Amino acid sequence: MREGLAGVDLPPSAVHALLEIEARDDVTAAALSGLLGLEKSSVSRMARKLVEAGEVAEAPAGNDGRAKLLSLTPQGRATVAAINGFARRQVAGALEHLPPAQHRVIVEGLRLYADALAASRGAAPAPASISIDAGYRPGALGRCAEMHARYYAREAGFGASFEALVASGLAEFSARLDRPCNGLWLARRGDRIVGTVAIDGEDMGNGIAHLRWFIVDDGARGSGAGTRLLSAALRFCEAQGFDSIHLWTFQGLHTARRLYEAQGFQLVEERTGQQWGKEVMEQRFVKALRTQ
């Protein structure tokens, strides 16, 4: 438990807090208290220190003015990257002393122990891990449209015209999915699709990648699936040599906006529009991949 154990100049509790915040797209101090097994007052003090140190940012949590959502700043993401790099080097160094065939034994043993530990604390075993898979799977298009329809009906009051717009766009895109400039990524928990994102490399032209149909199911929010989906799409765009990535969204989707900005997107345009079936303030975000 000594300081510096994770390769950074932070106490272990702060390291743990940063990792938990990074693993979840947004988390409140109250939720973080449960994750860390610490008193709320202790977590509040630690969160305040991390904010003052520039590692963590706070934002209002919906209509509750007392609750704050915690997210990593660019400095915080750099710190977490250093922690993870230190950990990977430690693990890789240890595994060098074992034959590759025994690596899987270690992974399975750790998983079994984690489930047993959760059960001993009166908790259910951790849910199945979420994988990020590239390419179409049966049911992916319908599931993507369903997640969009349910979420935006609740959050923005969109109706049948919005669901039809999503479904028709997906249908048109699916006919072009086999072209190398286009891609689709699915977050899956077992056989169930819990998130999607696509890159359309054709509809905007001029070296622009269009990021589309980014959604994470309610039950998978806070798992880090959104960040992993975006990262997979961005790596694809960089490998394909696009000049920039554009996406359209609308004002008020604060969690999504934080994810976009954390990945380097910047708001470049706002205008009112009704293409979603209801008048909203549309927003265009851009991430440059090449210096103009």
TrEMBL record:
PROSITE patterns for the chain: GNAT, HTH_MARR_2
N-acetyltransferase domain boundaries: 134-286
Alphabetically ordered keywords of this record: Transferase
Boundaries of every HTH marR-type domain copy: 1-115
UniProt cross-references to Pfam families, sorted A to Z: Acetyltransf_1, MarR_2
SUPFAM superfamilies reported for this sequence: Acyl-CoA N-acyltransferases (Nat), Winged helix' DNA-binding domain
Cited SMART domains: HTH_MARR (SM00347)
Superkingdom of this protein's organism: Bacteria
InterPro entries given in the database record: Acyl_CoA_acyltransferase, GNAT_dom, HTH_MarR-typ, NAT_camello-type, WH-like_DNA-bd_sf, WH_DNA-bd_sf
Protein name: MarR family transcriptional regulator
Species whose genome carries this gene: Teichococcus aerophilus
